[in-house]
Structure to design on (190 residues):
């Protein structure tokens, strides 16, 4: 087995750090996750570990289907969280437009792993540069076609990451993104 992973253990901590950076007074964030997705419980543990040093209280909200999103966002708003980290996977990828709508409706800044969520109206994403992963994947294909054994090629983690910020969403949330965070962005959607 070989290939490229889109997961890096440091990403969850970075997402929490960036969400805190847009409002340093923030002491309470939520994680929207689906406990039926195998990668979500371990990622939730990583987020809990990342929240503690930043003096953040972490709330959890569960959504197994798109039908659960309204009640999850309503619960997060009642808990007075000031931001939401949305873990990637079902149903969140397919419901990216609805997630953006819910975030604006409940006035909750959102952090995602994938750029397509920000393009759909989410506030921010931090994750692997998928264009780079595809290029690196092509290198693996080339090596295998030239005779390399896939078992001899290591599974690699991402090495390039990108921060994407949607300023239209920030404006809709009446949220001023600090210049220090904007300066770190790889892409800004205006």
């Amino acid at each position: 087995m070989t290939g490229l992973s889109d997961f890096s253990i440091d990403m969850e901590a970075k997402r929490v750090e960036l969400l805190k950076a847009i409002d340093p007074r923030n002491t309470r964030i939520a994680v929207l996750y689906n406990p039926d997705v195998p990668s979500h419980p371990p990622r939730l543990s990583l987020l809990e570990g990342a929240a503690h040093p930043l003096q953040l209280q972490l709330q959890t909200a569960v959504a197994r289907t798109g039908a659960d999103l309204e009640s999850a966002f309503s619960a997060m708003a009642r808990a007075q969280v000031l931001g939401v980290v949305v873990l990637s996977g079902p149903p969140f990828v397919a419901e990216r437009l609805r997630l953006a709508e819910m975030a604006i409706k409940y006035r909750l800044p959102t952090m995602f792993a994938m750029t397509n969520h920000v393009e759909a109206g989410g506030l921010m994403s931090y994750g692997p540069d998928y264009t780079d992963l595809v290029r690196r994947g092509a290198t693996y294909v080339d090596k295998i076609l030239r005779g390399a054994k896939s078992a001899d090629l290591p599974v690699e983690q991402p090495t390039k990451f990108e921060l994407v910020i949607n300023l239209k969403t920030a404006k809709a949330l009446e949220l001023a993104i600090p210049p220090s965070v904007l300066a770190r962005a790889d892409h800004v959607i205006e």
About this structure: Helices lie at 10-21, 40-51, 69-78, 96-105, 115-119, 130-145, 167-172, 179-182. The CA atoms of residues 106 and 124 lie 16 Å apart.
